[in-house]
């Protein structure tokens, strides 16, 4: 018997860098509509809910088929509120409705280039492993080993390894160990692990790699414009 999964779509109002970010138009629809559709088309998601405190976001989400069964408490919708509180609140709500789940996942509205098959593969990978959680990751476009910082005299210095950056023959990218980073698109955990850790990062976390071109997390106006362009060019992004 396959695991039952609750998908939570967090959609807080009050974005400052990109005002009304969650309902801005992307490829002819509000941004949140893409995540609602992806959750609906993911075969491993049994029940998906939108968690928001914002009445306008709730109205738009409902218009595009989203399930908004409650208003998120105000204390879980501040600039400093954690994702963990939102996930725990959703799971507690589900328990009160006599809805029990084996896995819970979080789908950020700001990652619209994710696909339903990505969600399914994360959840399948978690279910078939002995891990507690699985998160989507992406390869760094620029190796982080080439990072520099600025000192108090405004001079650059190597942040990690001098020999990788400042030698006569800088280390070629293909000689650098391949590293990935969480891309923000999909976070999943067993509900038992969530009860123990209240985090998607556990000592037993595995990754699911997505290509960098589908791993944008909209946090700035220019990223919104870039994703709009990518969505227009690749009409199959929701497949």
Separate helix tally: 7
- What is the count of β-strands? 10
User: What's the oligomerization state?
Assistant: single chain
CATH superfamily of the largest domain: Spore Coat Polysaccharide Biosynthesis Protein SpsA, Chain A
CATH-defined architecture of the largest domain:
Alpha-Beta Complex
Give the class from helix and strand content and strand pairing: alpha/beta
Global mean pLDDT: 91
How would you describe this protein?
Helices cover 30% and strands 21% of the residues. With 239 residues, it is an alpha/beta fold. It has two domains: 189 residues, Spore Coat Polysaccharide Biosynthesis Protein SpsA, Chain A (Alpha-Beta Complex), CATH 3.90.550.10; 38 residues, no CATH class. Strands 4-1-5-9-6-10 form a six-stranded mixed sheet, sandwiched between helices. Strands 2-3 form a two-stranded antiparallel sheet. The protein has a two-stranded antiparallel sheet with strand order 7-8. The longest helix has 14 residues.
Note the main attributes of this structure:
Spore Coat Polysaccharide Biosynthesis Protein SpsA, Chain A; two-stranded antiparallel ribbon; alpha/beta; 239 residues; single chain; six-stranded mixed sheet; 2 domains
Summarize the structure.
With 239 residues, this protein is of the alpha/beta class. It has helices at residues 31-41, 55-63, 83-96, 116-128, 162-165, 191-197, 221-233; strands at 5-10, 25-26, 29-30, 47-51, 103-107, 133-139, 148-150, 156-158, 180-190, 205-209. The chain contains 7 helices and 10 strands.
């Amino acid at each position: 018997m396959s695991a039952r999964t609750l998908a939570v779509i967090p959609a807080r109002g009050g974005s400052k860098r990109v005002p009304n970010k969650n309902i801005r138009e992307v490829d002819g629809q509000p941004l949140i509509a893409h995540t609602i559709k992806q959750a609906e088309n993911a075969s491993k998601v049994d029940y998906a809910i939108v968690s928001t405190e914002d009445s306008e976001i709730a109205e738009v989400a409902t218009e595009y088929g989203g399930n908004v069964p409650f208003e998120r408490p105000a204390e879980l919708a501040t600039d400093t509120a954690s994702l963990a509180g939102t996930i725990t609140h959703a799971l507690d709500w589900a328990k009160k409705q006599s809805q029990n789940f084996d896995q819970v996942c979080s789908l950020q509205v700001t990652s619209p280039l994710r696909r339903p098959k990505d969600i399914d593969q994360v959840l399948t990978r978690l279910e078939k492993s002995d891990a507690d959680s699985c998160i989507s990751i992406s390869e760094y476009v620029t190796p982080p080993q080439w990072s520099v910082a600025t000192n108090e005299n405004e001079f650059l210095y190597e942040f990690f390894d001098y020999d990788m950056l400042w030698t006569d023959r800088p280390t070629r990218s293909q000689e650098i160990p391949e590293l990935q980073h969480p891309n923000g698109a999909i976070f999943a955990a067993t509900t038992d692990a969530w009860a123990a850790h209240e985090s998607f990062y556990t000592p037993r976390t595995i990754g699911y790699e997505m290509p960098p071109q589908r791993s944008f997390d909209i946090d700035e106006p220019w990223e919104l414009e870039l994703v709009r362009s990518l969505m227009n060019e690749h009409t199959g992004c929701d497949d």
